[in-house]
Amino acid sequence: MADQLINQVMWPLIYILCIVLPLVIAVAMFVYWERKVIGWMHVRMGPNKVGPGGVLQAFADVVKLLIKEVILPTKANRFLYFLAPLIALVPALAAWAVIPFSGKMVLSNANAGILYLLAMTSLGVYGIIIAGWASNSRYALLGAMRSAAQVISYELAMGLCLVCVMVLAGSLNLSEIVNAQAGGKGLFDWFWLPLLPIFVIYFVSGVAETNRLPFDMAEGESEIVAGFHVEYSGSAFAIFFLAEYANMILVSFLSAIFFLGGWLSPLQGWIPADAPGWISWLGAGSFIWLFIKAFVMSFFFLWFRATFPRYRYDQIMRLGWKVFIPIAIAWVFVAGLLKYYDLVSIGVGA
Amino acid sequence: MNPQTLQLICFYAFSLVTVASALSVITLKNTVHAVLALVLTFFSAACLWMLLDAEFLALALVVVYVGAVMVLFLFVVMMLDIDLEKMHEGFVKFLPVGVIVAVVMLVEMLGLIGVRAMHAHDLGVDPAAVTGVSNTAWLGQALYTKFLLPFEVAALVLTVGLVAAVALTLRERRGARYESASRQVRVDPRDRVRIVKMDAVRPSSASADEGTAGESKP
């Protein structure tokens, strides 16, 4: 009884903490990194006062947000107003359960991992909608409306991109998808090559799905102030913030897993396994590769933000429905043909 | 605690949530709360299916109904301006009709269950477990081999429904303004702005006075 309690409850809880706590720290550091990068791109300093080089800026912001008052607007729906940030946060954290960090480091090696991810990411929009409605504010409702339309449109494109990945890998399991990208041709064995347009569509849809610039219609501060979370303050706002950044990091990790070979080394197969010391390590798969890839992908989020002006609403809808979805549907057939005629090597030497 | 007891406890917990939230869908006064209760009903039904190892159905329910259909539904309900007092006025008046409909439905369902029970046969073991593949893989195999024709027919019916929905709602709105992306892209700045080259000229002293007269002096 006690054994089972420890095995079935304690260890999963510890594993979950091992993912969630670093994630929260990563979000804090990512916020600092974002402000720094955007500062450099704007030829500014960025935060540089708190801690050495401003590293502790994010923590100072968190403390500031936590000790601020949480304001409940007049005639707001009290229950839903406070529930909304939590509804936004839970799917953002829950999706991390199926992320394989390396061949063995995965919390839940679920067979239907992709489906689970789709289910979790599609739940995130509820937090935004409920926040928009419960705030009893016009701006918040407009932001929620835009966000819902945008997320649903881009979810379809994302789903079709994942169909292409599934067709090539022949599995819904994320670890098996990564293993399917193993081979002797280094980084040319990964799915970005046969699925190049899909890789682009997936990542851009991911940017749209997380409501980041240039697709941040839900917030659009020049039009609707701050959109769905305009009425939120203090810790409630901090939770929305955490959910948004956790989702950004999640999309970076997923792009790395689906298209950039996850934990596999970009030099796989090029370096003999009997090479001495660190040279053989370069060719071996490791979670460090995944982290590097995810870091590069997450840098694109910041780069986009500093570079592109905001899309117009009708342009976002046109891009999603008339460009991304048709290309993705066409590429499902291309992926099927690639697989049928064995033009892509799947998991050789995995 | 053996796994089966745990599963039983989970089953009752999820069923309780399902039934309670389904009841609150029809009893809650606030329509938005009712829709959210419906979302919870779907979600806990998905949890029940997950307990049965029907992982594909469970996740598809969440993706399709919770993630997409109910979001749009929630929006429609949020946009409605409903007078809640009026909604509850006719409760007593419509109660007999409601009771009759409920009783008829109950009798029909009981009859159906009774007929099924007479022809009851053992469903046997889970075919996915027998073949040793995951539920999703087995379902895919079965749908695309054994049940290919019904599956394709269902897809065709859905497509017809989709086309019909578009045909019913698509209409030319008078007075609405559209932007044509291709026309926007084809715009040539030379058609809109004429840049005139001219030599710089120094204004005469009289006109210079006129020009500065209108400006406010600090």
Automatic annotation (TrEMBL), chain A:
- Write down the top EC class of this protein: translocase
Its Gene Ontology cellular component terms are: plasma membrane
Q: What is its EC number?
A: 7.1.1.-
Topology in the lipid bilayer is annotated as: Multi-pass membrane protein
Its catalytic activity?
a quinone + NADH + 5 H(+)(in) = a quinol + NAD(+) + 4 H(+)(out)
Q: Where in the cell is it found?
A: Cell membrane; Membrane
Q: Name one GO molecular function term.
A: quinone binding
Q: Which domain of life is it from?
A: Bacteria
Q: What are the transmembrane regions? A: 12-33, 79-101, 113-134, 154-174, 186-204, 249-266, 278-303, 323-341
Keywords, A to Z?
Cell membrane, Membrane, NAD, Quinone, Translocase, Transmembrane, Transmembrane helix, Ubiquinone
Picking any one GO biological process from the record gives:
aerobic respiration
Pfam families in the record, alphabetically? NADHdh
Q: What is its main location?
A: membrane
Q: Which family does it belong to?
A: Belongs to the complex I subunit 1 family.
Quaternary structure, per UniProt, is: NDH-1 is composed of 14 different subunits. Subunits NuoA, H, J, K, L, M, N constitute the membrane sector of the complex.
Q: Which NCBIfam families match?
A: PRK06076.1-2 (NF004741)
Outline what the protein does: NDH-1 shuttles electrons from NADH, via FMN and iron-sulfur (Fe-S) centers, to quinones in the respiratory chain. The immediate electron acceptor for the enzyme in this species is believed to be ubiquinone. Couples the redox reaction to proton translocation (for every two electrons transferred, four hydrogen ions are translocated across the cytoplasmic membrane), and thus conserves the redox energy in a proton gradient. This subunit may bind ubiquinone.
Give the protein name, as stated in the record.
NADH-quinone oxidoreductase subunit H
TrEMBL record, chain B:
Q: Which domain of life is it from?
A: Bacteria
Its main subcellular localisation, reduced to a broad class, is membrane
Record field: transmembrane: 6-28, 35-52, 58-82, 94-115, 147-170
Topology with respect to the bilayer: Multi-pass membrane protein
Keyword Metal-binding attached: no
One MF annotation (Gene Ontology) recorded for this entry: NADH dehydrogenase (ubiquinone) activity
Supply the EC number(s): 7.1.1.-
| GO CC term (a single one) | plasma membrane
Please indicate if the UniProt record lists Cell wall biogenesis/degradation as a keyword: no
The UniProt keywords, alphabetically, are: Cell membrane, Membrane, NAD, Quinone, Transmembrane, Transmembrane helix, Ubiquinone
Q: What class of enzyme is it?
A: translocase
Cellular localization per UniProt:
Cell membrane
- One Pfam family named in its UniProt record: Oxidored_q3
Question: What is the similarity comment for this entry?
Answer: Belongs to the complex I subunit 6 family.
Q: How does it assemble?
A: Composed of 13 different subunits. Subunits NuoA, H, J, K, L, M, N constitute the membrane sector of the complex.
Protein name per Swiss-Prot or TrEMBL? NADH-quinone oxidoreductase subunit J
